Amino acid sequence: MRSYRQYCSLARALDVIGDRWTLLIVRELLLRGACRYTDLRDGLPGIATNLLADRLRELEDAGLVMREDAPPPIAATLFRLTARGEELESALHALARWGIPLMADDDAQDAFRGHWLTFPVDLYLADRTPDRAPITIELRTGEEPMHLETVDGAVKVRHGSAERPAAVLTGTPRQVLGVLTGMLDLADARAGGLRYDGEEKALRRIQPPSP
Questions:
Q1: Where are the domains positioned within the chain?
Q2: Mean pLDDT computed over 126-138
Q3: Which positions ≥6 away from 188 have C-beta within 8 Å?
Q4: C-alpha–C-alpha distance, residues 26 and 45, integer Å
Q5: pLDDT band with cut points at 50, 70 and 90 for residue 1
Q6: What is the mean pLDDT of the chain?
Q7: Which of 50, 155, 156, 191 is deepest in the core (most CB within 10 A)?
Q8: Contact 77, 37 (CB under 8 A)
Q9: What is the pLDDT of residues 137-196, one digit of tens each?
């Protein structure tokens, strides 16, 4: 691992987590918890197998990642963040917030995984009427369906389809994210191909308030 050789806390932090792919490995472990090697590789499209192994070893050496055996009957090694690694969560949220404006432009070739929606959902969405019965909104974008669930005033991302969703959004990741965060008007998104099934009040319940 190369070092900047500077007596500065930022430089010291970048000595540990500044290499390419490192923070995205941390992202996967923050969002998904303990992961098998194959799970990490699937959540990091484009990474070379040997590079992933190298980065995991470096993170282990730095005390940010640990290995553990999966409970029976699964015979696999799991990787999870240590308490020190989990301290990076606020830094990743800050970077994710900073990066939201950069998502205005997208490329159809860009990879996408549904659980990556967790950062913008955590940053922008909340249940505006938490005293009412919880609702779910299904999102059909990417490789697998996801759904949002209102929980104690917050909105959480869950894997899989919802049993009885209040609404269903079907479209590209950019359309779905834009509509959820209020950065893209629903009518404009529909004109661009997004499909919205359900009552619009379900969407308004979780969207950020209008400026």
A1: 9-87, 104-206
A2: 96
A3: none
A4: 15
A5: low
A6: 93
A7: 155
A8: yes
A9: 999 997 889 999 999 999 999 999 999 999 999 999 999 999 999 989 999 999 999 999
Give 83's contacts (C-beta < 8 A, 6+ positions apart).
none
Which run of H or E residues covers position 188? helix 186-191
Distance between CA 160 and CA 144 in Å, rounded? 7
Q: Which two tokens stand for residue 182?
A: 């209020």
Could you report the per-residue pLDDT of 49-69, keeping only the tens digit for each?
A: 999 999 999 999 999 999 999
Could you give the CA distance from residue 88 to residue 17 in angstroms, rounded to a whole number? 10
Give me Rg for the CA atoms of the chain: 19
Cβ(68)–Cβ(34) below 8 Å: yes
Q: What single-letter amino acid sits at 165?
A: P
pTM (predicted TM-score): 0.91
Contact 106, 174 (CB under 8 A): yes
The topology (CATH level 3) of 9-87 is: Arc Repressor Mutant, subunit A (1.10.10)
Mean pLDDT over 11-20 rounds to: 96
Residues constituting the chain: 211
Which option is the CATH number for 104-206: 3.40.190.10, 3.30.1050.10, 3.40.50.2300, 3.40.50.720? 3.30.1050.10
Cα separation, 173 vs 108, whole angstroms = 10
